[in-house]
Amino acid sequence: MEHSPLSKKAGNVPYTIFKKLFHTLIAMCNRPTRLALNLDKDLLVIDATMITVGENRLPWALYHGKRSGVKLHVAYTPSTGMPLQVEETRARKHDGPIGPSLNHRDSILVEDRAYFKIQRIDSFLAEEQSFVIRMKENVKIVRPTSLKNLHREDSRVTRDITCHLGSAQVRSKQRHRVVFFRDDYGNEIRVVTDLRTVDADTMAAIYREHWQIESFFRWIKQYLNIPTLFGTTPNTVFNQLYAALITHLLLRWLYQRTSKGEVIETLSFISFTRHFLAQNLPIDWLSEMAASLKRWRQSHGTNMLNDKYSIGVDYSSCFAGLFYMQTRR
Q1: For 271-311, how does the pLDDT look when each residue is reduced to its tens digit (9 = 90+)?
Q2: Which of 2, 106, 238, 319 has the lowest CB atom count within 10 Å?
Q3: How far does CA 199 lie from the centroid of its chain?
Q4: Alpha carbons 189 and 34: distance in angstroms, whole number
Q5: What is the Cα–Cα distance from 130 to 107, expressed in whole angstroms?
Q6: pLDDT tens-digit readout, 57-73
Q7: CATH 3.90.350.10-classified regions of the chain
Q8: What is the CA angle 2-241-27, rounded to 5?
Q9: DSSP string of 23-73, one letter each residue
Q10: DSSP strand E in 78-153: where?
Q11: How far apart are CA 306 and CA 312, in angstroms?
Q12: Which of 319 and 20 is assigned the larger pLDDT?
């Protein structure tokens, strides 16, 4: 497909249609499975990523210097490898104000320092919103009390306390639990949480799940192919972003259904994506994918999937066509 007609069509269609389609597909595909952390709730990682280009490419979205860009604010479920919710803004928009729109009371929010605010964590306690948020290094610890929890010999946890947070001018009304631990490079990380019955080592493991969203962001940027934008208007750019997100969602859904079936060779999602794009999946994967899609069609009714798509290579080509739109050089 040539970029000219695609750009024209993408500019005319409100991007909110693609956004609504994306979130509709999420509701169909996103079925969390409990992680092996013995938690009562699923984890929900909140973070944002910027996609920048030259200032002349997107004059309506100037960032700083000679760059312009947009930002995706994402609520991501590590247990499925899929986003749960996405909001789009211009790159200058700070992460903090968007955070409340991504909150989900049924989940444990896992967030980085950009989302830390003393008033916010106090309100989370009142709202019974579970959270694990990395603290900024300059936040003062006031009247700490150590928790007597046993750690493993190989534990990276260095401290586990409850305390008030902040200065005399801005101080938390509630006492909060703070867990100190070291990352792979020896850097100290401090996370504040409302979880009082979860051991400190599990708290560190929960926060490490935050890094999964970085892999998702790298995937989007690698395969979105920003140098080849279909257009430069807000509608066109956001349509392309949501088309890329839909592509990721469908590929992840297809990968998960196929990988749980009768396949001999083990493939990572990245490897599956590369084989899928080249249309040279191993025969056991291709066969299981066809069988899985057939079962899905039968369970949802034939109207859910038009019979003109044969189960197998042609259906794979249909997905690959959408994917190709995002990766074309």
Answers
A1: 999 899 888 999 999 999 999 888 888 876 654 444 433 43
A2: 2
A3: 25
A4: 25
A5: 7
A6: 899 999 988 899 999 99
A7: 31-216
A8: 120
A9: HHHHHHH------TT--SSEEEEEEEEEEEEETTT-GGGB-STTEEEEEEE
A10: 82-90, 107-111, 131-134, 141-146
A11: 14
A12: 20
Where does the chain show beta strands of DSSP type E?
A: 42-54, 67-77, 82-90, 107-111, 131-134, 141-146, 157-165, 176-182, 188-193
In terms of DSSP H, where are the helices of 105-199?
Answer: 118-127
207 has pLDDT over 90: yes
Neighbouring C-beta atoms of residue 2, cutoff 10 Å:
6
Q: 14 with 29: CB under 8 angstroms?
A: no
Q: 192 with 118: CB under 8 angstroms?
A: no
Specify whether the CB–CB gap between 176 and 145 falls below 8 A: no
Q: Check: CB of residue 327 under 8 Å from CB of residue 297.
A: no
DSSP character at residue 115: G
Using only C-alpha atoms, the chain has a radius of gyration, in whole angstroms, of: 22
- Please state, in angstroms and rounded to a whole number, the distance separating the CA atoms of residues 170 and 107: 28
pTM: predicted TM-score of the whole model, two decimal places: 0.83
Q: What homologous superfamily does CATH list for 31-216?
A: Transposase Inhibitor Protein From Tn5; Chain A, domain 1 (3.90.350.10)
CA distances from 137 to 63, 90, 159, 187, 286 (A): 26, 28, 15, 11, 50
Q: Which residues have C-beta within 8 Å of that of residue 267, sequence separation ≥ 6?
A: 255, 259, 275, 282, 285
- DSSP-assigned letter for residue 220: H
